[in-house]
Amino acid sequence: MDARGRAGGGERDAGDHGRSLLARELLPPPGGEGPRGALQGRRPLGGRYRGGDRAPQPLGALDRRGAVARGGDARGGRRPRAPKPLQGPRRRRGAPRPEEGRSLKRLVAEPTRGPFVTVEGLDFSGKSTLVSRLKDELAGLDPPVYFTREPGGAAAAERVRALLLDPELEMAAWTEAYLYAAARAELVTREILPRLGRGETVVCERFLDSSVAYQGYGRGLGAREVRDLNSWAVGTVVPDMTFYLRLDGEERARRARGSEAPLDRIERVGDEFMGRVEVGFEEISRAEPGRVRVLDASLPPAELAGTVRDEILGLRAG
Ligand SMILES: Nc1ncnc2c1ncn2[C@@H]1O[C@H](COP(=O)(O)OP(=O)(O)OP(=O)(O)O)[C@@H](O)[C@H]1O
Ligand SMILES: Cc1cn([C@H]2C[C@H](O)[C@@H](COP(=O)(O)O)O2)c(=O)[nH]c1=O
């Protein structure tokens, strides 16, 4: 349960059961080092990134297969030890399986990556309402649609969520940014990557854009710095499509007043902060019109859900 008493969308103890080959390769051995073997040789935590002038990988730059397949360092630097890539040719759903005689390993390495969709927006813009309708509209599909949220969606990440949203806690802006990134690393490694690798669709309420908007713009840490920090957490996982729920301040304030739940630590920061966060989301959507679809969040919930459902079905159809 979170600060508002809501259960996590995809919360479950990931455990070891049913984990895909890909996930097993990404997860550390017991007592091992970290979510990616790639974390060897990383820059030290703490202090600002002084890694020189290499730009982080632009969001939205990778195609669906490539986003998971390529194991290289998103910053073009030292190549991390790459996970085994999903690099085989794409097999259309229903097409004949590769001919007999090919090794099991080869077959395992050839699933079609599923679409990764995120829902973004300011607090009270209607993300949870939209996602809850989508759960009904997209139930029972094969491959399934998996719904999750950030921060959270995995046992350890839900614990981090509780810390992040605890109104009793104070923390430095970089501490906050690292904790969001840590929760993201857990969710990506344990839940998102394995599912995409099995061809499932993943819909995530908030993702990296929220860190860029809230910590990068809102807290003033810088969009590039926050993306850079998060490159270790997301690896090469980039949303195929992001729905940004745009809502004017007045309607947002009206919805906030109508909410009975106590405000969490971030919601308490104040209007100026939220104004900067909004600028962040607007900048992201301007910079990446191909990935970010802006929705008028004042439309009726059923209309919004219908639009997003159709887009997701379109993505699944390829
Ligand atoms: N399309 C809509 N039209 C009118 N009211 C809406 C709409 N969508 C959501 N609401 C209402 O706005 C309030 C906030 O919605 P919701 O909890 O879905 O937002 P949220 O973006 O998930 O918020 P948070 O990020 O703070 O969790 C709720 O009272 C909800 O009923
Ligand atoms: C992922 C992410 C979230 N936040 C903020 C945004 C919200 O205020 C809370 C999450 O609560 P919600 O009810 O689930 O929307 O956390 C952030 O500041 N940075 C992030 O990366």
UniProtKB/TrEMBL annotation:
One of its GO terms (biological process) is dUDP biosynthetic process. One of its GO terms (molecular function) is dTMP kinase activity. One of its GO terms (cellular component) is cytosol. Residues 1-107 are annotated as: Disordered. Pfam families: Thymidylate_kin. Residues 119-303 form the Thymidylate kinase-like domain. Residues 1-19, 62-76 have a biased composition (Basic and acidic residues). Its EC number is 2.7.4.9. Keywords: ATP-binding, Kinase, Nucleotide biosynthesis, Nucleotide-binding, Transferase. It catalyses: dTMP + ATP = dTDP + ADP. NCBIfam families: DTMP_kinase. This is Thymidylate kinase.
